[in-house]
Predict the 3D structure of the following.
Amino acid sequence: MELDKSLVSGSMALLVLKLLEDGDKYGYQMIEELKRRSDDTFHLKAGTLYPLLHGLEEKGFVTAYEREAAAGKPRRYYHLTKEGGAALREKEESWNAYARAVGRVLKGGACCAGA
Amino acid sequence: MELDKSLVSGSMALLVLKLLEDGDKYGYQMIEELKRRSDDTFHLKAGTLYPLLHGLEEKGFVTAYEREAAAGKPRRYYHLTKEGGAALREKEESWNAYARAVGRVLKGGACCAGA
DNA sequence: ATCCGATATATAGATGATCTATATAAGGAG
DNA sequence: CTCCTTATATAGATCATCTATATATCGGAT
């Protein structure tokens, strides 16, 4: 199912930070892993990810270092900082609150709500 | 808790359509009801809602009619059309798929995932 | 009588997240 | 040599939402 793009926005920073919780990763790898972990729901575009990563670096949520690959271009790895971890936890809380609230609106019709 | 605004965007059309499923409503009423139903999580602004409603009307998802109130300005009621109902169901499916996918990413860390 | 707040709708302009398109660069397949 | 995949990067466009402002009516306070 094609996801309505207007429904999905704003949470990519959360997801990227979450990926880095498991260990340092480079951009291309994050795109692939996000696709895999979400059962092919998230197709994060390179043009979205790299500016996002640069923004996270500016905010001090991640640090970056270059590492040669066996072949091809050198890879730019990103590492989650302590501040990034705190931001991640905040964003997770926000997401949960938001998802709960949407759930309440979608379930609790005024017409049939018990309470 | 203040919701991170960058986390929450894109689903207002879904929520507004959902509100109209229970019966015709006017704008101001939707703002209040959304606040109530979401336990004060969603504070939809008038400047967001009215353009959104006009857009839904243009798409044929809602129809509108004016009705005098006991006092104050006349109210503009919105009614969910058949097409609007179909759009609502699609958006609900999209939301569920999206929320599930985020959940999978947030829970299934590569570090500790059983599989 | 006038000003302010709540109700109620509306528009203009700004912000910010994401997308598309494009550019660079290295390696392997045809 | 050219194309596809890996890999990073930037510019410009799009779209949802916000802030600020405007209109109009009513009730309460000054």
Notes: Chain B has four helices and three strands. The longest helix of chain B spans residues 82-107. The longest strand of chain B covers residues 62-67.
